[in-house]
Amino acid sequence: MSPMGIRLSPLGVIIFCLLGLGVIYHLYSGVIANRIASFRQAKTVDLRELLALSVEAAVLGGQEVKRIREENALHEKSKGKTREGAKEMLTTGDLFSHRKMFNLIKNTFPNLQVNSEEHDDASVHETSVWNHVIPEDIRNTISESREVPAESITVWIDPLDATQEYTEDLRQYVTTMVCVAVDGVPVIGVIHKPFSAYTAWALVDGGSNIKARTSYNEKSPQIIVSRSHAGKVKAFAQKAFGNDTVIIPAGGAGYKVLSLLDIPDEKHEKADVYIHVTYIKKWDICAGTALLKALGGHMTTLKGEEIDYAGSEANEGGLVASINMNHKALVDKLPNM
Ligand SMILES: Nc1ncnc2c1ncn2[C@@H]1O[C@H](COP(=O)(O)O)[C@@H](OP(=O)(O)O)[C@H]1O
Ligand SMILES: [Mg+2]
Ligand SMILES: [Mg+2]
Ligand SMILES: [Mg+2]
Q1: Distance from the CA of 236 to the CA of which of 42, 102, 117, 316 falls in 20 to 30 A?
Q2: Which residues surround the ion ligand 2 when the cut-off is CB under 5 Å?
Q3: Is residue 20 part of a domain?
Q4: Can you give the pTM of this predicted structure?
Q5: How many angstroms is it from 231 CA to the middle of ligand 3?
Q6: Count of H-run helices and E-run strands, the chain
């Protein structure tokens, strides 16, 4: 008999305790599972793996871009206007490519910050995960892995660059791009051309599958510029390099960076310098910056400042890109905006 006159059966006490534990487990199981999941998520990421994943994402996105164009199912619409009043086009190609690229990266490394130009309001559940196989060309060029803290990484993706030209069926200008910045500094750049199945990739201080050309005209450079967001770039370039300067209008920021390099495609135009004077966003230019940087080139604002590839998407200061020339001397020739 207990002091209160209630008799406690040992079996009853055990059952009561088990029930209590069950209730506590039920209440906290979600919390515990989340804790375990976040502990399991990689705290560091290997840049060589991230390069291989970036290539895979750009290629899979590119397949969507190509398919939608071939099926003539663009369903183009304007998603707004640029500051200069040009229509910002959105097509099914942009959207389907975004779904593939964004989800592949997020499903593989859920805790990475991934900034895409596009958004998916339908939130289609795309479950693809990367198979972690590093292709032979990457393994042969980059022999070592390099771990960096996941929290230092910002990934920028452009699921379809040169959308305006895509709607005009100017397929040669279209690319898909992935860039990885560590602490705001671009270290991985991938530019993929879906209609010619060509991919350029680079890891800064690691290696790449593309080279600079052997010579560039530094005195009278041929300047590649935007054809659909040109602003006053022609007058700007002529002021710097003279009225006879050859100006090449072309679509796509990815296309224009590749035109500075030794790309194995006769049809891809060649230029010495890329200049852009209107507003542009970081998913348009980060991959190009990384590729150029890996090969010893530069992409800066028109004042020669490095661009911080963390934080906001905006780049306000224009762009000048060059390789195998004195970039500082080039910047000094440019007029004030
Ligand atoms: N003034 C501006 N405002 C917003 N985006 C711009 C811009 N100028 C260029 N861009 C973007 O930069 C990319 C290259 O432009 P361009 O072909 O004119 O050189 C295009 O990307 P998207 O096609 O991915 O939207 C384009 O939309
Ligand atoms: Mg766009
Ligand atoms: Mg773009
Ligand atoms: Mg785009």
Answers
A1: 117
A2: 163
A3: no
A4: 0.89
A5: 17
A6: 9, 17
